[in-house]
Amino acid sequence: MRTIYCLFITLFIIADNFAGDGQRIWIYFKDKGKVEFQNYQTIVSSHLSGQSVQRRLKLGRSPLYDFSDLPLEKTYLQQLKQLGFIIYRQSRWFNAVSGWIDDKTVTKLNALSFVLKIEKVRKYSYSADYEPSGPDQWSLGKRIQSEYGPSENQDKMIGIPQAHSMGFHGEGIRIALFDSGFLLSHESLQHVKVIASWDFIQGDSVVANGQGDAPSQQNHGTEVLAVIAGYDPMQLIGPAYAAEYLLAKTELITSETHLEEDNWVAAAEWADSLGADIISTSLGYSTFDSGQVDYTYADMDGNTTIITRAADLAVSKGIAVFAAAGNEGLHSWHYITAPADGDSVIAVGGVQSNGSPWATSSYGPTVDGRIKPDLSAQGQSVYSVMPTSLNGYNYFSGTSMACPLAAGAAAIILSADSTLTPMQLREVMISTASQAQSPDNKMGYGLINLEKCLVQILDGQVLQLTNFTANAGAGKNELSWTAVSAIDIKNWIIGRQRGQAEFQIIGQLAVPAGQSYPAVFNFTDLDIAGGELYRYRLQVELVLGTIYTMDTLVVQSAIPAQVALYQNFPNPFNTTTQILFSLPKAQKVSLRIYDRTGRQVKALIENTALTTSYYHCFWDGTGSDGSAVASGVYFIVLTTDLDQRVIKGVFLK
Predict the structure, then answer these.
(1) Cα–Cα distance, 37 to 34 (Å, whole number)
(2) N or C: which end of the chain has fewer CB within 10 A?
(3) Class of the CATH domain delimited by 561-653
(4) Which residue in 411, 415, 303, 400 sits closest to 360, CA to CA?
(5) Using one digit for the tens of pLDDT, what is the confidence trace for 443-498?
(6) How many CA atoms lie within 13 A of 61 on its CB side?
């Protein structure tokens, strides 16, 4: 069953027939004729745009083109036509054609020397029972105070306003949407930059309702487009309203009309040729016409369905593919459907409007045990346009509403760093999501966190700290730092370590909304004892609650009063740890590392004369021969003329 993932859609199966006894089939070829490898570029460049080539360049692969990019052998097509085969779709990627033939001629097709195999095209249709979901009680209780209007919740949940404040809105990114049709006359869609559009049902460039379309044909696609690209301040702002769009009309909603998976393949190849960076699709395949073999959960392995294989091929060519996980959570199917099972496809699950799991959203894992969905966004009560109106809005529910939110977030990330490949993009998004450390098969790696994504990929470009200093005064330590930030900061968090104790938070500085940068911040610690050594830690808390440690420093408030060896930091450690000790007078010092058997592992300082001061040494977890030591507990021993001090450090590989 092919599903457009909104809750108001009902599916039913129709019979598979053509002209009484005909059938619609895929014919796969054994080769593409005699083509020399050195001619690939000349042949392929005729149907790939410059933007498509540039997108492939960032994959770092050579050559840029492969067998799947070559056109089909024309003589094979001519022979098929001579036998009465009516060609509907041609697929370079699969070296195949789809079309119609009568039952008696199928045997003749199989006998052709260039035919590899023949398969039926999967077909189905649905009737649409249109019913917007309306806002839930949690949404009704919220006060909307920002320019995002009622769309604030779905955007804020994944950090879109913070990304917009940094100047990223999907600029320069090309997004292909595959759906039922698109009407651009709504006030929130007037600005959308459409690069190209194509109706894969009727074979023209008109993706709004055309002759023979049901009145609601364009509705679902229009709603999806508005979620990702809408712009009407105080009503609706989509994550990627500044992106470029390729609009593919691939889904029929009239009853008793065939819908074929070959439309999706054709749309994917079209999007590739036009330089799409992202494909967002709300399709899902599981059950098909009576008389055909349905897909089962065993087929959700990422390698079986043609739509999944096409989606993975798109990723291999540099296109990030986002697919709705489905709304099967409460139904007998229960699991995600193709192409969300693809190992390279980012399957998007839906959550409730308060961010908690939503029982309706389809579950993973894939049959081979992979976590699905990959990521989650709001799927319940998502705000979008009423496509039957020029200025109306309403709430809709389904993972097909969550999918464009995730794809829009990806466009923002790519607009910040266009060098990311699809798999690098996936890694950034899942490694920073809310359940990155404990993924499950309901929300995957969790809710997208654009704040973390952008901080990770831009690093010092987003937030820089300079001139972190501390001055020791009479009974106080004065801290000062200068920050430059392209992202909203909620708080500065100041932590302090006294002696060998753990860091304790001793204060927070709230940052005013709209703070301009560069800015100087100050904090005074009045709880100071004379003659003590203090280590200060400066952390930043972003608007979504993400906390990053920016820097640490040590304040020497007085001449050391005694020999002391302070706890190494960090501890445990897996790269390098800092060891601090103090000397009240000049003397010879040794600083050695021992394992639990008492064997000396390394001497950091050996019988060296040092003057009165605090000293910092670093151990990188290697022995005297330079090789890494085993994980475990090690004794750090400070030996002076009259004293010996010992602490324990833990090294973890």
Answers:
(1) 10
(2) C
(3) mainly beta
(4) 400
(5) 999 999 998 999 888 876 777 888 898 887 655 788 999 998 877 889 999 999 98
(6) 12
